[in-house]
DNA sequence: CTGAAAGCGCTTACAG
DNA sequence: CTGAAAGCGCTTACAG
């Protein structure tokens, strides 16, 4: 009557193990494992009885044990290297995060959210990744000179970027919306609706969106035979305040502008405020085009004409590329088309 | 010369193990492990040489192995049971998510993001949690009748809610802003600045914010000796469109209202649009008070007077409570004060 | 097709 | 204070 006390945590019931399943099904643990791996080299009879046992017992594989032997974690990191404020303020990114979570869940892969916005965080994340705690990383920042990149390379971890990685040598897989074509669509729209002095508020020039959307602006002007006036170009930091300041600057420099293509909706709401204060009506005096089709675009007065990025498909493709990389496939790149959404501001 | 080929994944270098550290330090693996656990019952000399070896080798513990023996995952889930759109559109929640990630990182605990907005997702999440893949969960939805709750209870997993869980028996630990007091501050502000026909657009009545903020509204009117006119109360669904519809309804029912307390900034932007279309000036004809102090509050025209929720502290406290629960402490509750932010709309 | 066995990298009583 | 050893729950050659 003095049995050794069973080992217990504060959880009452221990989940069934592969051992229980094997006993229930009347086979060896090896066979159960083979069924778990896809059922190759398993007789139909064994397959069936194992599956029945799994259902009956409600068996779920213990990932820690599997991970220990396979040297695979079975999870993926979603890594933010932006200063956090910027990311979390940007509704695009939350859409992206949601999409990646869902897409990974379909493969039963948990998403681990990590931030590396400052030095201590970067150290922690680097250690975590180097220790092999994830099989790959979905990387969101595309600022050039990203200090995490070197670490990732050293850890030899599969990575997929959101947005074209700037200033990187080698082939780094990424998924991006077609920023340049999106910008071109917007500027064409402005021109086609009769605007002639079209300014632009570009994003930071160390980000792909900042660079590409400005390229698009220039290309369309050229296309229409309009000489590019550098005075019509201002740069913001993707924040609302940055957009506001840039608009003030533009108004001062080029009082007769009649349209502005703003590289993000958030900046566009700032531009709207500046125009309002300057007594310019939108779209009467000045047409305003945004980029992103974020909630802010709808909430703005007037609602913003903007460029929609296909975030659902971006996240889907990021996950697809990452899983392919993890499986050993070659790096690839996916560029997805954008869509012009015409509302009241232009 | 025929050594067995070393086992390899596609990663080149295998991280050092506790075995390597023990060899380097000249002690047993047990001693290394004891150092890892906090260094109790370890001689100063051993402690030092083990730490030196850890540094030299860049050793990082293998969580899968640890988890296998301790029966603890060392990670925590951040679980969204809202229909996803709502969550990800709400900037409060992303702030919360960020805060929780950071707070957990300080304890070296990875945050696993999970969504359970529909039935297949709920099944998957339930299996994952029941399998013991996380030590606890941070739960965000507070809609009453949440179908995940029962599963969590069955799995005997520590849980902390964000927001007061409605209609739950038993003591469930939660952290919330003081919704009622926040609402009272706003309504008092409206009344103190001379408004007399103060309407409200409440949130859904199956959410704590929806209920509590409406309570606050009623209480202040009573406090000021103003009889509550039920016609002045409308309910929205926290969306922009819902706020707009509710405002239209109120305007129709009570054309002479001169203020409205809206239970979220997002709904308030909708209300602003409706007022604009009805030709009412804000704050001239109608004062508008929001709730949340989200980015939308700043972007709104005019910028919204609103109630700020202390999201940083909320996330911090949620993590603290959850870790305490995991460590076996009793359930507790934390209510945090809000702050009135006066801008232009009221 | 299947079982027995080794081993993944840790932690934790148990002796000493 | 410390080492030897068992064991956590899996996967995977290896024989058969």
From TrEMBL, chains A, B:
Gene3D superfamilies attached to this UniProt entry: 3.40.50.2300, lambda repressor-like DNA-binding domains (1.10.260.40)
Query: InterPro entries, from UniProt?
Result: HTH_LacI, LacI/GalR-like_sensor, Lambda_DNA-bd_dom_sf, Peripla_BP_I
Q: Which PROSITE patterns match?
A: HTH_LACI_1 (PS00356), HTH_LACI_2 (PS50932)
The source's domain of life comes to: Bacteria
**Molecular-function GO term, any one:** DNA binding
Alphabetic keyword roster? DNA-binding, Transcription, Transcription regulation
Task: Note the SMART domains from the entry.
Answer: HTH_LACI
> Where does the HTH lacI-type domain start and stop, copy by copy?
16-70
* PANTHER family in alphabetical order: HTH-TYPE TRANSCRIPTIONAL REGULATOR GALS, LACI-RELATED TRANSCRIPTIONAL REPRESSOR
Its protein name is LacI family DNA-binding transcriptional regulator
């Amino acid at each position: 009557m003095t049995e050794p006390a069973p080992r217990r945590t504060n959880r009452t019931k221990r989940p069934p193990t592969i051992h229980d399943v094997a006993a229930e099904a009347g086979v060896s643990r090896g066979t159960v494992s083979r069924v778990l791996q896809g059922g190759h080299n398993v007789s139909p009879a064994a397959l069936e009885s194992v599956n029945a046992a799994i259902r009956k017992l409600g068996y779920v594989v213990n990932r820690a044990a599997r991970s220990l032997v396979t040297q695979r974690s079975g999870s993926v990191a979603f890594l933010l290297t932006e200063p956090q404020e910027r990311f979390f303020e940007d509704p695009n990114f939350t859409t992206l995060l949601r999409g990646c979570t869902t897409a990974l869940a379909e493969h039963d892969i948990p998403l681990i959210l990590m931030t590396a916005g400052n030095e201590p965080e970067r150290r922690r994340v680097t250690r975590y990744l180097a220790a092999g705690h994830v099989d790959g990383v979905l990387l969101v920042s595309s600022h050039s000179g990203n200090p995490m990149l070197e670490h990732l390379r050293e850890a030899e971890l599969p990575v997929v970027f959101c947005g074209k990685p700037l200033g990187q040598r080698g082939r780094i897989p990424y998924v991006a919306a077609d920023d340049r074509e999106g910008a071109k669509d917007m500027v064409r729209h402005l021109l086609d609706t009769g605007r002639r002095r079209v300014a632009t508020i570009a994003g930071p020039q160390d980000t792909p969106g900042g660079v590409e959307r400005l390229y698009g602006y220039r290309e369309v002007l050229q296309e229409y035979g309009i000489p590019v006036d550098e005075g019509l170009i201002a740069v913001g930091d993707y924040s609302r305040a940055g957009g506001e300041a840039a608009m003030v600057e533009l108004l001062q420099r080029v009082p007769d502008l009649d349209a502005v293509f703003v590289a993000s909706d958030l900046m566009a709401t700032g531009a709207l405020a500046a125009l309002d204060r300057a007594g310019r009506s939108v779209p009467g005096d000045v047409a305003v085009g945004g980029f992103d089709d974020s909630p802010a675009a709808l909430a703005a007065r007037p609602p913003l004409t903007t460029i929609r990025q296909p975030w659902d498909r971006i996240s889907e493709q990021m996950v697809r590329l990452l899983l392919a990389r993890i499986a050993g496939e070659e790096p690839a790149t996916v560029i997805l088309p954008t869509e012009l959404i015409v509302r009241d501001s232009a």
